[in-house]
Amino acid sequence: MAAPWPRRPRLVAGNWKMHRTSAEGSALAREFVLLRAADPAGGGCAVAVCPPYPALAAVGDALRGSGVYLGAQNMHAEPQGAFTGEVSGPMLASLGCRFVILGHSERRHGMGETDEQVAKKLRAALRDDLTPIVCVGELLAEREGGKTAEVLVRQVAAAYSGLSAEVARTTVVAYEPVWAIGTGKVATTEQARDAHRVIRSTLDQVLGSGSGGQIAILYGGSVNAGNAATLFAEADIDGALVGGASLEPASFWKIAAAAAAAG
Ligand code: PEP
């Protein structure tokens, strides 16, 4: 069993989405390992990469012993069964995955994943000894319609209701405004801070007072080497879930170093 994830650690996780074959992913991972060895500053925060399923084994091999964690981008809630095309938590854990991204907006809005499915996957990830990164966030129309808080409360409450505070503490939340993902439009520090506070207060309500302050909340949405330090200066932002910039080793490492420097 993996050691419990510590309280509110700084974490920078790279979501490679549907990019890189097994050989390409392995080469990219080796670049991260070299960067980490050459510039351990970024090692002051936890770092994870989440390649597509077919690259997990090769990337895991390339990362072995480096201290960079391996994660997956999704999983099925059942441990096994007649679910053609799906991958289960025990399969991911057997490949050395520590993390699994759940409820990414590209799955919620592109593939119809529901709050209920995300809640089931969260429990399954915990059962399977994976650290879930639970993504929540509003669409542009929801933000413009003044519904950001309502959406966040609904998504967080659906995922976390019924979990014990002790178990929930081992999970990670990622606030990812959908309008900021892959668009180059990063949320302002104020927008991110306000959203993180809504998420923490919802966790307090669902899990018990003080719980929200114990759970790491990442920001995701067009984070890059140029804007990371400003975001990480906000005390409520515990790290980042990074898409595009996680495919550029030097940029990703600068983001990790900025998170580490923010302490
Ligand atoms: C993501 O895929 O979770 C993401 C935040 O992407 P990007 O950094 O490219 O906006």
Tell me about this structure.
- By secondary structure, this protein is α/β, with parallel strands linked by helices.
- Helices cover 41% and strands 14% of the residues.
- It has helices at 22-38, 56-63, 89-94, 105-108, 115-127, 140-144, 148-160, 165-168, 189-207, 228-232, 249-262; strands at residues 11-15, 46-50, 69-72, 99-102, 131-136, 172-175, 216-220, 239-242.
- The chain has an 8-stranded parallel β-barrel with strand order 1-2-3-4-5-6-7-8, surrounded by 5 helices.
- Strand 3, helix 3 and strand 4 form a beta-alpha-beta unit.
- The chain is globular.
- 49% of the residues are buried.
- The model has no long low-confidence stretch (mean pLDDT 95).
- Bound molecules: phosphoenolpyruvate (PEP).
- Residues 15, 17, 176, 181-182, 220-223, 241-244 line the site of phosphoenolpyruvate.
- The site of phosphoenolpyruvate has 13 residues, from strand 8.
Fold topology:
Blueprint: E1 11-15, H1 22-38, E2 46-50, H2 56-63, E3 69-72, H3 89-94, E4 99-102, H4 105-108, H5 115-127, E5 131-136, H6 140-144, H7 148-160, H8 165-168, E6 172-175, H9 189-207, E7 216-220, H10 228-232, E8 239-242, H11 249-262
Parallel strand pairs: 1-2, 1-8, 2-3, 3-4, 4-5, 5-6, 6-7, 7-8
Helix pairs in contact: 1-2, 5-7, 7-9
